[in-house]
Write a structure and sequence with these properties.
The chain has ten helices and 21 strands. With about 425 residues, the protein is of the alpha+beta class.
Length: about 425
């Protein structure tokens, strides 16, 4: 059996991984005997035949599913691993989580068929109908992998999503034509002269830090130079921990980025090297309820070190790290093994990152009608330590705008920082 460590995102349509892990011997004792006895009874008395292999799979799936929303069984690890090397896939383009067996939309991917069809954050998908085969799949007590498989399909084929939406009395039917979903981990742009913009969709392919550094160096060489950068992590479900630390290392002049803790009290600190590629020029980080895990690591590091101003909405609150253990038969288990904290010790699990300046996405819902699902809402989610009183009572500015007013607000904040002469 081989082991590896991973930092997952929202368990969207995939999970990213890296590193190595440890497995200690565990004596099953009488527990294993009881499980064997139950399997013996099923084999001889259940109304239909079930093989020992089927019982084994169901037992493992059930055990892991009951632990927390991010642990699970992977029947074919090679296929699972291959999916994360793909730069594109055929599907509808949704980031989802499974809450009490119900599939909930965290966010449609930018420009995806699902986004164009009007699927919204907070929608609950209760089932799908493949329009080519007419096969229906009921999303009841379904696993994340099963839901992802039902949503994917050949480009050009259609699938109808049956959706429950807050304040909608009737079930919605949304027909979506699948298409090729191209995954670009980072997308650069110059918003105005001297103001760079990095849209980071996930920390997945191991190139985000290096490519971002290249973009910044090119911007610095332009006439007028680079005055500041907006880093947009909205809807970023997470990614590889090492890649996130490397990305933060671009902007931090040394110091801690994140610490991870295990059940034995072990504490491992990831730090940045000396050298800030922006040489202290201001940074604004955009986040929302779909910013999770690795993106929360980055936002927390920028906030705690006062290297950047965080703008947007409170993040998802997924502060746990998973390990992958592979077996000789090609299967694997994904297990939550660590929780992480920001440089100042803020526990992200169940709490998220509260922006310095809160800018609600009023085009989706008003602040009082916010429908984002967060880590703390998930069934059997790991409970994080409660926020300190001063953190829970934190006051933040609320800025309005009319068209992507979150980005507009971030741009105004950055301009203010530039005018003030720095951070």
């Amino acid at each position: 059996m081989k082991n590896r460590v991973l930092l997952s995102g929202l368990a969207a349509l995939g999970i990213m991984f890296s590193g190595g892990a440890r497995a200690d011997h565990f004596d099953c004792g009488d527990v294993y005997s009881k499980i064997c006895a139950v399997m013996h009874i099923i084999a001889h008395e259940y109304y239909k035949a079930i093989t020992p292999e089927e019982m084994q799979t169901k037992a493992i799936e059930g055990l892991l599913r009951e632990l927390d929303p991010h642990s699970g069984y992977i029947p074919n690890f090679a296929e699972f691993e291959k999916s994360f090397d793909e730069s594109e896939f055929n599907g509808v383009g949704l980031d989802i989580v499974v809450q009490d067996g119900r599939v909930t939309v965290v966010a449609p991917m930018e420009g995806s068929p699902a986004a164009k069809a009007g699927v919204q954050t907070g929608d609950i998908i209760i089932g799908v109908r493949d329009e080519k085969t007419k096969a229906r799949v009921l999303f009841d007590r379904i696993t994340l992998d099963e839901a992802a498989e039902a949503l994917r399909g050949e480009s050009g084929t259609s699938v109808t999503l049956f959706i429950e939406r807050e304040k909608e009395p009737e079930t919605l039917e949304i027909k979506i034509e699948r298409n090729v979903i191209k995954i670009r981990d980072v997308r650069p742009a110059m918003l105005e002269s001297g103001i760079g913009y990095l849209r980071v969709h996930k920390f997945g392919d191991g190139t985000v830090a290096a490519r971002s550094a290249d973009f910044i160096e090119k911007w610095k060489g332009k006439e007028g130079g680079l005055k500041g950068v907006i880093i947009d992590l909205r809807g970023n479900p997470g990614g590889i921990l090492d890649e996130t630390v490397s990305f933060a290392d671009n902007f931090l002049d040394g110091g801690a980025v994140v610490s991870v803790k295990d059940q034995h009290g072990g504490d491992l600190v990831y730090s940045a090297d000396k050298g800030d590629i922006l040489e202290g020029k201001p940074i604004v980080v955009l986040v929302n309820g779909g910013s999770a895990s690795a993106s929360e690591v980055f936002a927390g590091a920028m906030q705690d070190t006062r290297r950047g101003i965080i703008v947007g909405e409170r993040t998802f609150g997924k502060g746990s790290v998973q390990t992958i253990a592979e077996f000789r038969d090609g299967s694997a288990v994904r297990l939550t093994s660590f929780v992480y904290a920001t440089p100042k010790g803020h526990v992200v699990q169940g709490n998220g990152i509260t922006p310095d300046i809160i800018v609600p996405n009023l085009s989706v819902a008003s602040p009082k009608e916010e429908i984002l699902v967060r880590e703390s809402d998930l069934l059997d989610s790991i409970k994080g330590e409660p926020l300190k009183e001063e953190a829970t009572q934190k006051t933040s500015s609320i800025i309005d705008s009319t068209k992507d007013f979150q980005l507009h607000a971030a741009l105004n904040v950055l301009k203010g920082m530039i005018a003030a002469g720095g951070r």
